[in-house]
Amino acid sequence: MPGTIVRNLFDQYSQPENRLSHALAVCLDEDRRLLQEFLAWAGVQSPARVRDLLIVEQSLPGDPPESELEAERIGLPDIVVHDDDGWCLLVESKVQAPLTEDQLRRHERTLRRRGFEGIHCVALTKSGVRTPKGTIAATWSGLYEWLGTARIRSEWSDRLRAYLRAAEVRLAQEEYLTEGTLTMFDGFPFSDDNPYTYGEAKRLLKLALKELRKDRALIALGMDPKAPGRTAITGRGGRVVWDFLPLKDRPRRGAFTGYPHLTLAVHADHLEASITIPNGVIRPVRQRLIDLGSDRLSTINAKILRRARRLISRGAWVQAYALQRHYLGQRSPAITDAMLTFRLETSQSRNSGRVKRQPEWVELFAALPRRKRSNIQFQYRVHLPWGTKGLNSRDSLGLIVDSWTAMKPLLDALRGEP
After folding, report:
1. 3 state DSSP class of 401
2. Cα–Cα distances in angstroms (integers) from residue 51 to residues 79, 290, 301, in the given order
3. Domain count, the chain
4. What is the CA radius of gyration of the chain?
5. What is the mean pLDDT of each successive set of 10 residues along the chain, which is 418 residues long?
6. Which residues fall within 8 angstroms of residue 195, CB to CB, at 6 or more apart?
7. Are strands 87-93 and 79-82 parallel, antiparallel or unpaired?
8. How far apart (Å, rounded) are the C-alpha atoms in residues 353 and 66?
9. Which of 182, 345, 367, 379 has the fewest beta carbons closer than 10 A?
10. Domain that residue 87 falls in
11. Taking the CA of residue 232 as centre, how many other CA atoms within 13 Å lie in the half-sphere pointing to its CB?
C-alpha cells in the first residue's frame, strides 16, 4: 500500500544518488498530488489512479527493499512507480556516477521479466546528458525549479527543495559535487529569521555567478563569460565568501590580480558587488589610477551616483575602499592592517541626504596610489543590505548587474577611455 516506504536516515545511504532518490521517493509517496504533477512533468500518464500507485526504491516490485550495497551489487533501479498491473515509471538518479545505456536497458529487461510492458524511464542527472532513445532526460536543477512553481507548491515540494539545497551544500563540502548543480539560483534568502551560513552563501554565490556569466549587459561591460573565477573556494566557515568575474581585456598571462575585475561577495549581513583594483595591477592601469586625482575622481563619483539612483532608493549605498592586509598562511584568514572607506556622496559639492560633504576623504584616496609603500587593494563597492527589495528572489541578479554597470565610469577611466 502507499506510504510503506522505509524512512532511512540520510547517512544510511553512502551514495548521493541514493540519498537524493530516497528523498524524491518519500515526497512523491506522501503527496499524491505532487506525484500526479510529477508524472505530467515527465510527460507520462498512468492508467491507474494516482492514489493507487505503488512506489518502491532500491528494489523491484513485489520484492522487499535491499540494502544499499546489495542493491548496487545486483543493479536495482533507484525508484519504480507502478500500478502492479503492467505499467511502471523507472527513475534513475545520477550525480557523479556516469549514466550508461547498458544500465538502463538491464533495468528495463528485468522489469519486463516481471510482467511489465508499459515501461517509461526518466534519467535525473545534475546536467543534461545524452540518453538512449525513449528515455526522458531531466536534471535535478530542472526538478528544483519546477518544484518552486506556484501551481504545485505544497509542504512536500518545499521540503524536497529544502533538502536539495542542503544536499548541494553537503556534497560540495564532501568534494563529491565538484561541478554542476542540483538546484538553481532563486535569490539570497538571508534575514534575521534565516541567518547567513557559509555553506549556503557559497552555494548561492556559485549559482548566481553561473547565471551572471550569461548576462548581456555584463558582456557589454567587458566581462569574459568563458573565463573562470577562483580556482577553489576553500573553508567551511567565515563571515564572507567571494568570487569574481574576469574582464576580456585583461592580460592573458599572469594572475588575476594583474587587472581589475568584478567581485561578488556574500557577507553575513549584506551582499556586495565591487570593482576591484588589486595591488598588483599592471603598470598602465596603476598609472591611470594615479593620474585621476581627487577632482576627476569626484566627477566619476557623481556619474556613478546618478547611475546608481535606483539602487540607492532601495537602501543600497556606494563606497570607495582602500585596504591593506596580510596573511599568516596560504589558507589563513586575512588580517586587516589599515582600511579607508567613504561614501561617494562625501566627495560631492552638495550634501546628499544624511551624507555630508567631506572632500578630504576623496583627496586622501586619490593620494594613496601616488604615495603607497605597501600592498593596497582599491575597490568601489555597492553595498546591498539583506532586506533590500528583490534581493531574496531572482531579481537580485538584476540588482547585481545594475551595481556593476553603475560603476562603469570607473572602469572606463582605468581602461583609458574618455
Report:
1. helix
2. 17, 72, 63
3. 2
4. 26
5. 38 67 93 96 94 90 63 70 94 81 87 91 79 82 90 92 90 75 92 92 94 97 95 79 96 90 97 97 96 96 97 96 87 85 94 84 95 90 96 96 98 92
6. 268
7. antiparallel
8. 68
9. 367
10. 10-173
11. 9
